[in-house]
UniProtKB/TrEMBL annotation:
Protein name, per record: Uncharacterized protein
Signal peptide stretch: 1-21
Species name: Nepenthes gracilis
Keyword entries, A-Z: Signal
Keyword Cytoplasm: no
Lineage: Eukaryota, Viridiplantae, Streptophyta, Embryophyta, Tracheophyta
Pfam families linked to this entry: LRR_1 (PF00560)
């Protein structure tokens, strides 16, 4: 027989004092909508502590699950605002909630390792999010072009979903992006040249897709790149010699390349590489 457990979404850290502050009612209402849309039916929320208790029927919480709300209470009128929301590893089977737009101060979203379906809502385009992780869900369709409007993003992880179609050129608008992970989807077509504008990327992963066309030479312009994974991406050789200019690389995986292979770039000057798979 299943047992009742109480799962407390803890606070990663509250900025400012909570002793005389509380979350504004609009954000309390928004959290109710969000939790409901994501398939969590049993929960309690304390707006004076930014703490949520969710009561569900199950044998035990998932061992690798993580849940948290982070609030910022450095606002006037004794109010707090949600700035970070994590519901990770709970096998939630709802949809990605458009109601996040009702949390105007939200910066970080992590819904990894669930069964969420649909896609990233167009409503999110107006938000000032800095990081989005929907790793290992069931999102499908084309990667939304509206992501290109979210120029505050520094981290975007869409890995292990069912996204298909071309990588949208609009992602090249994300000039503050440091991490872009599109691995393990069903993406096709060439990498758009607009990605050349992502000059501060440190982590780029596109492996395990069905892309086509050559490995783009503009990768050599990503001088800050520390991690590059393109194995089994569907891209074609040769491997650009300019990769040897990426002196900050510590991890390089670029095997299973289609087409012509005209030798590997000289990597002897890339002394920081701790792992390479060519």
């Amino acid at each position: 027989m299943a047992t009742i457990f109480v799962l407390v979404i803890t606070i990663l850290g509250c900025i400012g004092s909570l002793s005389e502050s509380k979350l504004v009612q609009d954000e309390v209402d928004a959290l109710r909508h969000i939790i409901s849309r994501m398939g969590l039916k049993y929960w309690r929320f304390d707006d004076t502590t930014c703490q949520v208790e969710m009561v569900g029927v199950t044998s035990k919480p998932p061992s690798n699950s993580e849940s948290s709300i982070e609030c910022d209470c450095q606002f006037g009128s004794q109010t707090c605002h949600v700035i970070s929301l994590t519901l990770k590893g709970y096998s939630l089977s709802g949809v990605i909630p458009p109601e996040l737009v009702m949390l105007p101060h939200l910066q970080h979203v992590d819904f990894a390792y669930n069964y969420l379906s649909g896609t990233i809502p167009s409503e999110w385009a107006s938000m000032q999010l800095k990081s989005i992780s929907v790793l290992a869900n069931r999102l499908s369709g084309e990667i939304p072009k509206i992501l290109g409007d979210m120029t505050s993003l520094t981290y975007l992880n869409l890995e292990a979903n069912y996204f298909s179609g071309n990588v949208p050129r609009e992602l090249g608008n994300l000039i503050n992006l440091e991490t872009l992970i599109l691995s393990s989807n069903r993406l096709t077509g060439p990498l758009p040249t607009a990605l050349a504008e992502l000059n501060i990327l440190t982590d780029f992963r596109i492996n395990d897709n069905n892309l086509s066309g050559p490995i783009p030479h503009f990768i050599q312009n990503w001088k800050r790149l520390a991690r590059l994974e393109m194995h089994a991406s569907g891209l074609e050789g040769p491997i650009p010699s300019g990769i040897s200019y990426l002196l900050n690389l510590t991890e390089l995986r670029i095997s299973d390349i289609h087409g012509t292979i005209q030798g590997f770039p000289v990597l002897s000057n890339m002394t920081g590489i701790g792992f390479e798979e060519l």
